[in-house]
Amino acid sequence: MIPRKVILDVDPGIDDALALTIALFEPRIEVVAVTAVGGSVSPEQATRNVQTVIENLDPPRWPRVGSATVPERPLPADNCHLYGADGLGNSDFATSELHHLHTAAKVIGDEIRAAPEEVTLVALGPLTNVAGALRRDPSLTAQVGQLVIMGGALAEGGNVTPAAEFNLYCDPFSARDVFRQPATMTLIPLDVTRQVAMTFGDLDRLPPESTKAGRFLRRILPFAFRTHRQEYGLEGIYLHDTVALVAAMHPELFVTERMAVDVETHGELTTGAIVCDRRRVPQWRHNMYVATKVDAAGVMDVVLRGVTAAASSN
Ligand code: RIB
Ligand code: CA
């Protein structure tokens, strides 16, 4: 089986870091690049964290890294209350100084042009980089294999405001630009990601400290368990980004529907909320697949097998 080429665009964040851990060791995919975007943490911190994750896990093939740029509009929110001031559970990792990194938008463009129609771009943060790459080179839309996006809330309420999901709220203008492109897109909204949770029992089943992946995950994940309990009263953590990664690798675990979706950019109460044209006779074109159901047990099985595989490789 030839592995599918994947670019992961991430704003790590513990949630994104778990998705990266699985992706970097998954034989079905070849992670050609990891690009950083500001969101859960600042752009600078996101770039540093991408490097931290890769250095700590030391996968067999190191992907290219693209740095986050400061967005035109300041980020309206972060997730430090959930993931710590550094986004990785205040774990105080030592990370090499990075020099001369190309920007995320350039790296995304390079990698898609190098393998037209073969690259799956998995966007796990605000869509700033994806929109930026498409703006730099509009021909990319026709060259990207597919785009899998973690974002939005359909029937579910939002998670950062009553109406909006975090990634789309942080940069609704970029989200709108991306949604209006004629690319093959799948949206993984909160409606499905909230159905998958890692429990304290799963935490106990993580690989041992003697492995790089086990040591890394055991250092970052407990922080998120504590904050999810304090903030939401949950006895577990949501795995939004990991669920979206699994959707890219195992679409058979999801039910999707074709929909016509746009993003509110200026609402007094609804900035970042998605709007779907579900009129009897829709006037908008169907522009994406939206996941509406998930085999939650199947996804958790992939997640736990993924972290075990990550640990057994070194
Ligand atoms: O709303 C969920 C998203 O916000 C995820 O990407 C998570 O990492 C947080 O940034
Ligand atoms: Ca994220």
Structure overview:
With 314 residues, the chain is of the alpha/beta class. The chain has a single domain, classed as Alpha-Beta Complex (Inosine-uridine Nucleoside N-ribohydrolase, Chain A). The chain contains 13 helices and twelve strands. The strands form three sheets. Strands 3-2-1-4-5-6-12-9 form an eight-stranded mixed sheet, sandwiched between helices. The longest helix has 21 residues. It is globular. The model has no long low-confidence stretch (mean pLDDT 96). The protein binds alpha-D-ribofuranose and calcium ion (CA). Calcium ion (CA) binds next to α1.
Which compounds are bound in this model? alpha-D-ribofuranose, calcium ion
The tally of beta strands, per DSSP, is: 12
Low-confidence stretches are none
Q: Give the strand order of the largest sheet, numbering strands 1, 2, ... along the chain.
A: 3-2-1-4-5-6-12-9
Briefly characterize the structure.
The protein is α/β, with parallel strands linked by helices. Helix content is 39%, strand content 18%. It has helices at residues 14-23, 43-57, 80-83, 104-114, 128-136, 140-143, 166-170, 172-179, 190-193, 200-204, 212-232, 240-249, 296-312; strands at 4-10, 29-36, 64-66, 119-123, 146-150, 185-188, 197-199, 236-238, 254-259, 261-263, 274-276, 288-294.
